[in-house]
Amino acid sequence: MKIVVVGGTGLIGSKLVKKLRERGQEVVAASPTSGVNTLTGEGLADALKGASTAVDVTNSPSWEDAAVLKFFETSTRNLLDYEAAADVQHHVALSVVGTERLLESGFFRAKLAQENLIKASSIPYSIVRATQFFEFVKNIADVSTEGKKVRLPPALFQPMAAEDVAGAIARIALGSPVNDTVEIGGPEQFRLDELIRRDLAARKDPREVISDAHARYYGIEVSERALVPNDDARLGETRFEDWLRQATQQVPHLQPA
Ligand SMILES: NC(=O)c1ccc[n+]([C@@H]2O[C@H](COP(=O)([O-])OP(=O)(O)OC[C@H]3O[C@@H](n4cnc5c(N)ncnc54)[C@H](OP(=O)(O)O)[C@@H]3O)[C@@H](O)[C@H]2O)c1
């Protein structure tokens, strides 16, 4: 079985490529780095030749409203067209839990546009909606920082390890298309403000987290349950504290003099 991972050099893509290869699959990691560009179509026909499954784990380089919408619309349209021409039988795409509850944000309008194009296409599909990755928690703190304070709402939050995201996508890519949306999330629920406080403390980051129900999450107000998955979500195994302990223990490699 040949599987093309589009965005195969990214955070999730590189882990997914490794997992699929470990399971004996023929995998192509496709991205601009390897001469495959979903915006221009460059390299797509060759990459998809003979593939039964294509997994889209790309992300837009810019999250500005118009740019991100253009990225996901153009990239998804091209990918689906080239997949149809190559007779690909399963399109798997990574999206985000709560997308329909976050549409004041241009990024989520773009993810919904991506999902709608997939649903309207003739190719059997599985849309995987994941909660936020543990690896993304620091970015949340950074974009919510004003001076030395991080302002965040106490919304419920159920993040998961990128490794578990990749594992769940691998299982879905190796199965039959569900022609539906599957939700995945972390094993525990937190409050967003509290989790960021713990993350910063573990990193000895002096920023203070201020809890504020009206603080914005990537520019929008979020309701208490906007970011958490449905009750039937498949849950990852890695606990945040275990991941954080490992992440903060990593010592940078010393360069030889
Ligand atoms: N962050 C979160 O917490 C979260 C939660 C749920 C879902 N997601 C979704 O997860 C997906 C993957 O996220 P990630 O963090 O793994 O992304 P990432 O690390 O930023 O990687 C993005 C990938 O997209 C590729 N790419 C960019 N432009 C491309 C183009 N024109 N043609 C083909 N490939 C292109 C990049 O290739 P190069 O390396 O060659 O540039 C790279 O492989 C995103 O769609 C995101 O919406 C994220």
Please work out how many helical segments DSSP would assign.
Answer: 8
Q: Strand order across the biggest sheet?
A: 2-1-3-4-5-9-12
Radius of gyration: 19 Å
Q: Which band does the percent of strand residues land in?
A: 15-25%
Write down how many β-strands occur, each being a DSSP E stretch of 2 or more residues: 12
Order of helices and strands: EHEHEHEHEHEEEHEEHEEH
Can you summarize this structure?
Helices cover 37% and strands 19% of the residues.
3D structure, described in words:
There is one protein chain. The chain has 257 residues and is of the alpha/beta class. It has 8 helices and 12 strands. The strands form 3 sheets. It has a 7-stranded parallel sheet with strand order 2-1-3-4-5-9-12, sandwiched between helices. Strands 6-7-11 form a 3-stranded mixed sheet. It has a two-stranded antiparallel sheet with strand order 8-10. The radius of gyration is 19 Å and the shape is globular. The chain starts with a strand and ends in an 8-residue tail after the last helix. The model has no long low-confidence stretch (mean pLDDT 96). NADP nicotinamide-adenine-dinucleotide phosphate binds next to α1 and β4.
Attribute tags:
alpha/beta; 37% helix; 8 helices; 19% strand; 7-stranded parallel beta sheet; 257 residues; binds NADP nicotinamide-adenine-dinucleotide phosphate; 12 strands
Question: How would the blueprint of this fold be written?
Answer:
Elements: E1 2-6, H1 11-22, E2 26-30, H2 44-48, E3 53-56, H3 65-85, E4 90-96, H4 106-120, E5 125-130, H5 137-143, E6 145-146, E7 149-152, E8 156-157, H6 162-174, E9 180-185, E10 190-191, H7 192-202, E11 208-211, E12 234-235, H8 240-249
Parallel strand pairs: 1-2, 1-3, 3-4, 4-5, 5-9, 7-11, 9-12
Antiparallel strand pairs: 6-7, 8-10
Helix pairs in contact: 1-6, 3-4, 5-7
This protein binds NADP nicotinamide-adenine-dinucleotide phosphate.
Residues 6-7, 9-13, 31-33, 36-39, 57-59, 61, 75, 94, 96, 111, 130, 132-133, 136 line the site of NADP nicotinamide-adenine-dinucleotide phosphate (NAP).
